[in-house]
Amino acid sequence: MLSDAGVLNAWHELGMKRKDIERLAHFAYHPKDIAATIASGSYLTEGMVIAPCSMKTLAAVAHAHADDLVSRAADVVLKERRRLVLVPRETPLNLAHLRNMVAVTEMGGIIMPPVPAFYAQPKTLDDLVEHTVGRMLDLFGVRSAKLKRWQGLKRTPAEPD
Amino acid sequence: MLSDAGVLNAWHELGMKRKDIERLAHFAYHPKDIAATIASGSYLTEGMVIAPCSMKTLAAVAHAHADDLVSRAADVVLKERRRLVLVPRETPLNLAHLRNMVAVTEMGGIIMPPVPAFYAQPKTLDDLVEHTVGRMLDLFGVRSAKLKRWQGLKRTPAEPD
Amino acid sequence: MLSDAGVLNAWHELGMKRKDIERLAHFAYHPKDIAATIASGSYLTEGMVIAPCSMKTLAAVAHAHADDLVSRAADVVLKERRRLVLVPRETPLNLAHLRNMVAVTEMGGIIMPPVPAFYAQPKTLDDLVEHTVGRMLDLFGVRSAKLKRWQGLKRTPAEPD
Amino acid sequence: MLSDAGVLNAWHELGMKRKDIERLAHFAYHPKDIAATIASGSYLTEGMVIAPCSMKTLAAVAHAHADDLVSRAADVVLKERRRLVLVPRETPLNLAHLRNMVAVTEMGGIIMPPVPAFYAQPKTLDDLVEHTVGRMLDLFGVRSAKLKRWQGLKRTPAEPD
Amino acid sequence: MLSDAGVLNAWHELGMKRKDIERLAHFAYHPKDIAATIASGSYLTEGMVIAPCSMKTLAAVAHAHADDLVSRAADVVLKERRRLVLVPRETPLNLAHLRNMVAVTEMGGIIMPPVPAFYAQPKTLDDLVEHTVGRMLDLFGVRSAKLKRWQGLKRTPAEPD
Amino acid sequence: MLSDAGVLNAWHELGMKRKDIERLAHFAYHPKDIAATIASGSYLTEGMVIAPCSMKTLAAVAHAHADDLVSRAADVVLKERRRLVLVPRETPLNLAHLRNMVAVTEMGGIIMPPVPAFYAQPKTLDDLVEHTVGRMLDLFGVRSAKLKRWQGLKRTPAEPD
Amino acid sequence: MLSDAGVLNAWHELGMKRKDIERLAHFAYHPKDIAATIASGSYLTEGMVIAPCSMKTLAAVAHAHADDLVSRAADVVLKERRRLVLVPRETPLNLAHLRNMVAVTEMGGIIMPPVPAFYAQPKTLDDLVEHTVGRMLDLFGVRSAKLKRWQGLKRTPAEPD
Amino acid sequence: MLSDAGVLNAWHELGMKRKDIERLAHFAYHPKDIAATIASGSYLTEGMVIAPCSMKTLAAVAHAHADDLVSRAADVVLKERRRLVLVPRETPLNLAHLRNMVAVTEMGGIIMPPVPAFYAQPKTLDDLVEHTVGRMLDLFGVRSAKLKRWQGLKRTPAEPD
Amino acid sequence: MLSDAGVLNAWHELGMKRKDIERLAHFAYHPKDIAATIASGSYLTEGMVIAPCSMKTLAAVAHAHADDLVSRAADVVLKERRRLVLVPRETPLNLAHLRNMVAVTEMGGIIMPPVPAFYAQPKTLDDLVEHTVGRMLDLFGVRSAKLKRWQGLKRTPAEPD
Amino acid sequence: MLSDAGVLNAWHELGMKRKDIERLAHFAYHPKDIAATIASGSYLTEGMVIAPCSMKTLAAVAHAHADDLVSRAADVVLKERRRLVLVPRETPLNLAHLRNMVAVTEMGGIIMPPVPAFYAQPKTLDDLVEHTVGRMLDLFGVRSAKLKRWQGLKRTPAEPD
Amino acid sequence: MLSDAGVLNAWHELGMKRKDIERLAHFAYHPKDIAATIASGSYLTEGMVIAPCSMKTLAAVAHAHADDLVSRAADVVLKERRRLVLVPRETPLNLAHLRNMVAVTEMGGIIMPPVPAFYAQPKTLDDLVEHTVGRMLDLFGVRSAKLKRWQGLKRTPAEPD
Amino acid sequence: MLSDAGVLNAWHELGMKRKDIERLAHFAYHPKDIAATIASGSYLTEGMVIAPCSMKTLAAVAHAHADDLVSRAADVVLKERRRLVLVPRETPLNLAHLRNMVAVTEMGGIIMPPVPAFYAQPKTLDDLVEHTVGRMLDLFGVRSAKLKRWQGLKRTPAEPD
Which of C134, C139, C150 is closest, CB to CB, to E37? Predict the structure, then answer.
C-alpha cells in the first residue's frame, strides 16, 4: 500500500510512480480501498510492516483512528495479536510522537527507527537499507542471508585507549 | 567526552583511538573526571549534544542517575535549562527506551534519532551524516551552510499517480 | 448520517444505497457537510446514537478529532452534555479501542456493543436487532413496547444442577 | 467449567443442565474445585476461553481476585503467558467494565465481545454463533473450515452513492 | 436486599431478623438471587441506595466485581446511568477505601457518609438518622418534609469572638 | 485552634464563643498567628487532630496550601512524619473532596469521618461523640477507658435468618 | 455574589459599585458570608454560574479549596450533582489553568470561555454578551428568545474557493 | 493557510473567499499541499499561529495526527521547539477538548482563547480583535503599538464598596 | 485463621486438619466468622501476618474487597495503621499480581515472598522456614534467637576470581 | 512584594520593616494590591523571583490558586512563558511540597532551594547568600561578577584515598 | 555471565569460583565485555534467564539502564521481543522493587521469584531448586522430565475440616 | 561510608582524606564492599542518613538501582521500613531530580535539603550546620541540646508594617 504522501515520497526520492512500485509487490492495495481483504481480521496474514511510517500514520495506529487502509490494516493486525512493525524516519521528535510510540509499543507493536547501523560497517546507502531490512525480517522470524550479524568485538593489542 | 563504550565504537567503526578523537576537539574531558568544570551549573555553556547516545546514557539522563561525567553534564544542562540534544541510534526500541525518551523530552531535552533524510537525496553515507549534523546545529541556532533545506515539492505534469 | 464506510456497509449487508436509507429518516445529513445545523451546540437536539460505530469514529469522538459531520456532531453533543450512545461492533478489541471506550465514557458518552441478548430468548436475527434498539431507546427515556424486559428467573423443581 | 450463574443461564437459554453440558466436553471441572489440575501453572494447557464471560468474572481476572476455579484458571493462564480469550456479552458498559477490559488486555488477555458480524451475511442465530466461534479459534491458531472469511468488496457499477 | 453481614448487623443493632426487615419493604430480594429482575438493565428502576454500605460492597461496586445481587444491582444502575448512592459508615479509612470511593464517583455514583449534621441541631439519634435519610432522598429529587434545611446564620450582636 | 468558620460553628451548635472553648484547652492559638510555635517543625509535638475538619482545610492540607495556622501546623506535622488525624463531616462528597482525602492519606495522614458507630449500641448523641473521640485517641496510642470495644458477635439459637 | 476582585472589575469595566450590581439581583450574598444559605447542600438550588470566573476561583473549585462563599457554593453544587458553569476569561492559559479546567470537568462542572461567536454575526459587543448569556442559559434548559441559533450554511453558486 | 472549514468560515463571517484572504498574506499555502516548505523542520520559521483553531485541528496537533498541512506545520514547529500559538474559539468545552489543550501545553505550545479583554475597555468588536492580536504578537516578542497595556488600577475615594 | 484453600493446603502439604492447626494457636477464628473481634478496629492488636498469602487474598486486601474474615482483618489492620505482612508464594507473577503488591505497599502493608535465603547457608527445608519466620518477626520488632543474621563477607586470599 | 509572612520574617531575621525593604527596590507592590500592573500579562516583565518562597506560595503557584499579588504575578509569568524562579527554604519536605515542586517545574518554573554551595568554599553567611544570588541571576542571563564559578578539580599527588 | 556480586555469592553459597561456574556453561561471557555478541539484537538467541536476579539488575532492566553485559543482554532480549525471565530472591520488597517488577512485566519480561513449591512436596533443598528450574524451562517451552506437575487434589473421606 | 565523589568533596571542601573521616566514625564501610553487614536486612540498624546526598545516589535509591554499598544500604533500610533521611544539596533542580524525591518520599524516605534556617538567627556557617544536624537527629527521635527550637514570635509595639 502506498499512501498519498508515500506516492510523493517515492516520486521525489526514487523517481518511481505508484504503479512502478505496485509492480514490485505480490499484493497491492489502494489506501482508500477500506473494504479490502486486509481490513478484516478474518482474513489471515502474518503481520504488517509500515516503512517508512509517517508521524500521521503512527498517530492513527496509536489511537486506532484508522482513516485509510494503511492504518485500518495495522489496527486489525493489533487486534488479532499479529506482528506489527513501524519504521518511523522523523527527527527530531516531539512529545506527541514519543507518546504515540509508547502507545503502539503498549499495544504490542514494534517501533523500529531506520537508524544507520554503523557497527555493521556499511560502505554505501544500500548497505544501510539492506541492514535495516534484514533486522526487520528478523522480527518476523525470517532470516536474511545478507544480514551482517554482530560477532562481538575482539580486543587486540592495538586496541584503543 | 568519550565513554568507554564510545572508545570501543570509535575503534571499531572509525579505526580511531580516544586520543585521535580528543585531538579534534577544542575541549576534551574524560568520562570518569566527575569533578570537571562542566559538572557544575556555575560553569557556563550553551548546552550539550550526546551523539551517538547509548540506551544506557539515555536512561541515566532520564532518571538523573548520573554515573559518569557524560550523564552528569547532561543533568546539569537540564537543571540550568540549557539545550540538550540526544542522538540515539538503537533499533528496535523497547518500552523502557521509549519511556526514557518521553521523560527526557518532558525534562526539556530533545530526542533526535539520526534517521537518514532521504528527502534530501543523499548520495553517500557522508551526505547522511552531514545532514544530521546540520539539523543538530539548527537546534542551537547555528545555521550550517552545507545543510540542504527542504524547498517544497513542485507537482509537475510528469508527477506520479 | 451515513459515512462513506457506512454506505459500503449498507450496500453490502442490506443491499441499500445512501438515498434508500436517507428516505427512511426524518432528517438526513451528508457526513462532509460540516456546516450543517447539528455542527453547532446552539442547535437543539436530544442527543445522538451512532450505530454501528466504527473504530475510526470511536477514536475521533474519544479525542475530539472531528474530521466529518458524524464525529463533529458527537463532539457537540458531549460539549453540551446531551446523551451520546455509541454502538461498536468490532471484535476482538485492541488496547487502543478499549482506551478510546474508556475516554468516551469519562466524557459522558455511553458504549453499548450490540451483543446478542440470549436471555431474551430471541428466535431470529430481527429479534436481536429489535432488542438492541429497544435498549438503546431506553437510554433516552423512550420506552419501546416491543422490548422484552427481564422478569427474573423462577427456580423450579426441574431447575438445573 | 460452568459457574453457578452459568448453570442458570444454560437452563434459561438452552434448557440444559450442568451435566448435559459437561457431557459435551472432554474435560469438565466444577468451579468450586479450586484444587483441580488447571489451578496450577505446572499443569500444561494451550490457554483458555471464557464464553460467555460475566462482568464479575471479568473483574476477578482483571484484579487477580480469583474466587473460584474459573477465575483462578484464567489467572494461571496469564501468569504462564498462555492465551486467554474473554467473551463478554454485557451492554451497555460502565466505566469499571471498560477499565477491567483495559486491565485484562494489558495483562495479555484478549477481549472479544460476541457482536454479530453482519458483514458475513448471517441468515440465522446459528450463523452468528458459528462465526464468533470461528474467530475465537483463530486466536488459538485453529482454523475453522466453517468460518466465512472476508474476501474484500468489489465496487461494481451498481455500487451505492 | 439484606446481605448476610446486613442480617448480622440488623440483629445486633436493631434486634430485627431478615423477615422483620423485609416486611417493611415493598420489594425484597435475597442477595444470592442473582437472577432477580433488578439484575438486568432492561428492568426499569429509578436508581438505588445502599445503606449502610460495607467496605466490601463498596469495593465490589468500584471494580464491578459483583458477587451477589446487591453489587450486581448497583453495577446495573451504573451501566444504565441511573442514580446510585452509597452510605459507608467505616472509619478511619485506608487508602483502598478512599480509592474505591473515587472510582465509584468517577463512575457516576455518589458517596454519602452518614456523618452527623450537627448544624441541624439534632437532639436524638433519630434526628440524625432522619436528617441523613432526608438528604439521601434529596439526591433522588424526593423532598422530605421532615428535613431541616439550612436557613443561613444571622450574625447577631451577641455573636462570638 | 479555632478557625473563623469554627467560631461560627461553635456558636451555632454549642452556643459557645471562642474564649469559652479556648478556656477548655491547655494551649490555644489563633489561626492567624502564623508565627506561633507549632508553625515550625523544630517545636516538638506528638501530632495533631483537626475535628471537625472543613473541606477547605482538608484541601489546604492535601495541597500544602497552608493559608492559616491550622493548615500550616498540619503541614508541619506531615513533614516531620508525626501523626495527623482529620475528621471531616461533609456529605455527600464530590470528586475533589475524595481526591483530597486520597492525597492526605498518601502523605501519611489519616481520614476519619465521625460516622455513628451503631455497632457500639449508642443511646445518645453523647455516646456517639464519646465513641468517636475514643477511636481518635486510639490512633495516638492513648487508650480511653470509656471506649466500648467490639467483643465479637455470638451467634445464638435465636439468631436471625 | 461579587468577590473583592469582582468589585474592582465591576468598577473598572462598568463603573458600577457592589450595591449597584446587587440591586439587579433577586438574591445577593457577600462572599465572606460563609454561613449563608447556599453554603449548605440542604438549601435547594438549580445550580450556579460563575461569570466571569477568575483563575483563582477556578482553582478553588477544582481543588475544593473553598475560601469564600463563591467557591463554597460551587463546591456544594458539585457535591449535590447540580449544574455548575464557569466562564473563565483568562488568556493565554498555563498548564495549571488547564489542569484545573480538566479537574472541574471531571467533577461534573462545565467550562465555558466567553469566546466571541462570530458565526452568529454579531455587530456589537452587546451582541457578543447576549450570545454568551443565551448559550449559558441553554445549559440550564432555559431557552433565550434572543439567542441566534445556527441554521446551517447553504452553499451557494457564489460560494468561496 | 486556510483549511476547508476555514474557507467556509471566512465566507460566512467575512464574506471573503480563499483568494481574497491569500492576497493579504506574504505567503500562502494550500492545506492539502503536504509537501510544502513548512512541512519540513529544515525550512526555517519563527513559529506559527493558528487562529481560529478548530477543535479538530487542536486534536490533530495534540496527538501529532497531522492530516493536512496546517497540523503538519504545527507538528514541525513543536518538534523544532519553535513557538506555537493556538487560538480556540469553541465553547463550552468537553473533556477531550481540555485534555487536548493540556497535551499541547505539555508539548510546548500555547493555548490562547480569544476571550474579550474587557479590562482594556473596548468599544467595538475591532477593539477586541486588535487586543487579541496584540497579545498574540507579544508571545513572539513582537510589540504592537496599538496594544493597550494594563497600567494598574488606582483606588480612588470614589472606589466601590 | 485458615481459609478453605488453606485447609486444603494444610492437608496436602502437612497432613494436618483445621483442628490440628487451630490447636497450635492461642487464638483461632473461622474465616467465615465475619463478626469476630478482629473484624473491628476497636479491638486492639499488634498487626497481622498472612502466610502463605494466596493471590486471591492479596487481591482482596489490595482492593479492600474483604469477602472473608482473613481479608477483613487485614483491611482493619491497614485502616488502623498497624503492621501487615503478606507472604505470597506464587510464581511466576502476572501484571495484576504485581499491581496488587504495589497497591498493598502503598497502603502501608509489606510484601514478603518466602524466597530461600541461601546466603544463610541453610541445610534443610526447616532452615529455610526458620529463616523466613525469623525475618517476619523482625518486622514486628520481635527478635528471634534462631535467626542467622548476615555478618558480612570477609574477602580471603582464596577468594574467587 | 513582601507578603505578610514575609514582613514577619524580615523583622525577625533582619530587623527590617516593610518600608525599609521597599526602599531598597526600584518597584514595590503590596501583596493585596491585586489590580497592580504585574497582575496582567499585557504588562511587560522579564520574569520573577520569589525568594524566599513559602510552601503556601509554592502551592498557590502550583495550582494557580492565586490569592494575593505574589501568586497572581507568578501565575501571569507562567502563562506568558517568562522565567519564574522559586527559592523554597523549607525542610524536611512532605509529599505535597514535592508534588507542588514537580507541578511548577512542569509548568516551566524553576525550583531553586538555597542550599549552601560548600564547593565554592564560603567563609561567611554572606558568601552563601552571594553565591545563591549569583546563581539565581544566571537563570535570567545576568552574569554576576561576584559569583565564584567552578573551575574543576585538579587531582594532585596529595589527593585523598 | 556472572556479575561481580554473583561471584561473591557463588563463593559464599557454593564455594565455587568464577571459572568453576563458567566451566559448566556452553557459553560464558564476562559482565564487563559489553561488546560481546549478545549485546546486539542481530545475534540470535532464544531469550535469557537471570537467576538469581539482584534488585540492582532488576532496576537496570526496568529502566534500560544497562551498565554491564547482564543488563545490556536483557535489554536486547526485550527490544527483540524474545523471552526474558528474572528470578529475584529479595525479601521483603520495597515500593521501588515492586514498581520495577511491574515495569519489566509491562515490557514483556517475566518475574519469577523462586518461592518454595511446597505443593510439590519437596523433601530437600535440591527438590526445591529442581522444581524452580523446571518451571523456568516451561516458560521457554522446554519440558523437564524431572518436574513434578500438579495432578489435582482428590478429596477423600479422610479430608480435612 | 564515603563514595568516591564524597572523597573528592571532602578533600576539596574540608581538606580531609577518606581515612581522616573514617577515623571520626564508630563504623566505616567502603562503598564498594557490597557484601558488608549493612547490605542485608537481617543486620539490625536504626536507619540511615545520607548527607550530603548526590543526585546520582538519590536516583539510585529512588529506582532501587543500588550500584554501590551506599545505595544498597539505603535500599535495605527502605525494605525493612526503617528511617531513611537524604540531604540533597543540589540547586536548581530539574524534573528528574524532583520526581526522584517524590519517589523516595512515597517509598517512606525523607528528603531534607540543608537549607539555611535563618529563623534560628545563625551567626556562622557552623551554626547552620549545627541546626541542620539537630533537625536531622530529630527525625530519629534523638534530641540535640544544641538545637535552637522555634519559640514563636511575639508581636511587639515595634513590630513591622
Answer: C150
- For E32, the grid coordinates are 444470592
Contact residues, J window 76-105, toward F, CB-based 8 Å cutoff: 90, 92-97, 100
Q: How far is J67 from chain G (nearest CA, A)?
A: 7
Low-confidence ranges of chain B (pLDDT < 50): 157
Q: What is the mean pLDDT of residues K32-50?
A: 96
In 3-state terms, what secondary structure has residue J112? coil
Q: Are the Cβ atoms of E62 and D96 closer than 8 angstroms?
A: yes
Q: What is K62-110 written as a DSSP string?
A: HTT---SHHHHHHHHHHHTT-EEEEEE---SB-HHHHHHHHHHHHTT-E
Question: For chain L, how far is it from start to end, CA to CA, in angstroms?
Answer: 50
Instruction: Compute the count of residue pairs across chains I and K with CB atoms less than 8 Å apart.
Output: 138
Identity (one letter) of the amino acid at H122? P
Neighbours of K, requiring at least 3 CB pairs below 8 Å, are A, B, D, I, L
Looking at chain F, which residue has its C-alpha nearest residue J92?
Answer: F79
3-state percent helix, strand, coil for chain H, nearest multiple of 5: 40, 10, 50
Identify the pLDDT of residue J12: 93
Report the 10 Å Cβ neighbour count for F57.
Answer: 25
**C111 in Cβ contact with C101 (< 8 Å):** yes
- Whether residues J41 and G12 touch (CB distance < 8 A) is answered with no
Nearest Cα residue to E67 out of C106, I90, D31: D31
Closest approach of F88 to chain E, Cα-based (Å)? 8
Q: Do K93 and L79 touch (CB under 8 A)?
A: yes
Q: Which residues contact C145 (CB under 8 A, 6 or more apart)?
A: none
Alpha helix positions (H), L26-124: 55-62, 69-79, 95-106
Residues β-bridged to residue C88: C53
Average pLDDT over residues H90-97: 98
Which residue type occupies G57?
T
> pLDDT of G30-71, one tens digit each?
999 999 999 999 999 999 999 999 999 999 999 999 999 999
Q: What ipTM does this complex have?
A: 0.94
Do the chains A and G touch each other, judged by at least 3 C-beta pairs below 8 angstroms? no
Tell me the pTM.
0.97
The verdict on J158 touching B (C-beta cutoff 8 Å) is no
The residues, ordered by sequence, that sit 6+ positions from D138 with a Cβ below 8 Å of its Cβ are A41, A42, A44, A80, D144, D147
Mean pLDDT over each residue of chain I, to the nearest integer: 94
Residue D113: all three cell numbers together: 465481545
E strands of F54-155, at which residues?
A: 83-88, 110-111
Count of C-beta atoms within a 10 Å radius of residue C47: 17
Measured between CA atoms, how close is B53 to chain H, in angstroms? Answer: 19
C-alpha cell of B33?
Answer: 573526571
pLDDT digits (tens, 9 = 90+) for L87-131: 999 999 999 999 999 999 999 999 999 999 999 999 999 999 999
What is the number of other CB atoms lying within 10 angstroms of the CB of residue G84? Answer: 24
Q: How confident is the model at residue I32 (pLDDT cuts 50, 70, 90)?
A: very high
The identity of residue D71, as a single letter, is S
For residue C116, is the peptide bond before it cis, meaning its omega torsion is within 30 degrees of 0? Answer: no
Chain A: residue whose CA lies nearest to K78: A110
Give the nearest partner residue to F125 out of E85, E98, E125, using CB atoms: E125
Q: Report chain G residues whose CB lies below 8 A from the CB of J78.
A: 94-96
**Could you tell me if A128 and A115 are in contact, meaning their C-beta atoms sit under 8 angstroms apart?**
no
Q: Does L64 touch chain B (CB under 8 A)?
A: no
Assign E83 a pLDDT band (cuts: 50, 70, 90).
very high
- Per-residue model confidence (pLDDT) at position G40: 97
- Least CB–CB distance from J79: residue in G5, G60, G94: G94
CB pairs under 8 A between A and H: 54
Chain A CA closest to residue H67: A56
Amino acid sitting at position L84: L
